[in-house]
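Input structure tokens:
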């Protein structure tokens, strides 16, 4: 379900120069990075790349969603981490992404952790945005 413009609480603004081989920066100056294609895609690999930035954002967002769900369920997330692996490859439309979300939650049993991860996937804004668009595997 989409939100109305009047319901937006925050808007991030970033501008890229020269696409995958240039620079990306936010309007507030908090992020200013050189971007370059990874060596695996024929680039220099000297800067970050859009897939790394997407993985960073998705993992942080998913960890936040996991926190929301854990508070509702009164589950202990002490020492937990979330890792997002974002892959890019060729598909019938040119290029596409695949994502693997892996959560490590040492303070609870595997069955409870799996249930929390599934619930977090339903509330995470990144998960909602990618639903039906890319393959997301939960680990």
């Amino acid at each position: 379900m989409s939100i109305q413009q009047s319901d937006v609480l925050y808007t991030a603004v970033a501008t890229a120069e020269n696409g995958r081989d240039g620079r990306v920066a936010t309007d507030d100056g908090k992020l200013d990075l050189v971007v370059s294609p990874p060596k695996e895609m024929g680039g220099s690999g000297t800067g970050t790349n859009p897939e790394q930035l997407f993985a960073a954002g998705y993992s942080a967002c998913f960890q936040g969603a996991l926190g929301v769900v854990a508070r509702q369920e009164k589950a202990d997330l002490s020492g937990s981490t979330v890792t997002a692996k974002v892959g890019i490859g060729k598909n019938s439309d040119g290029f596409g992404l695949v994502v693997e979300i892996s959560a490590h939650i040492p303070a609870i049993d595997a069955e409870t952790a799996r249930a929390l991860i599934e619930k977090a996937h339903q509330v995470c804004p990144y998960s909602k945005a990618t639903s039906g668009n890319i393959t997301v595997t939960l680990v």
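The first helix runs from residue 50 to 73. The beta strands are 14-17, 22-26, 32-35, 81-91, 94-104, 135-138.
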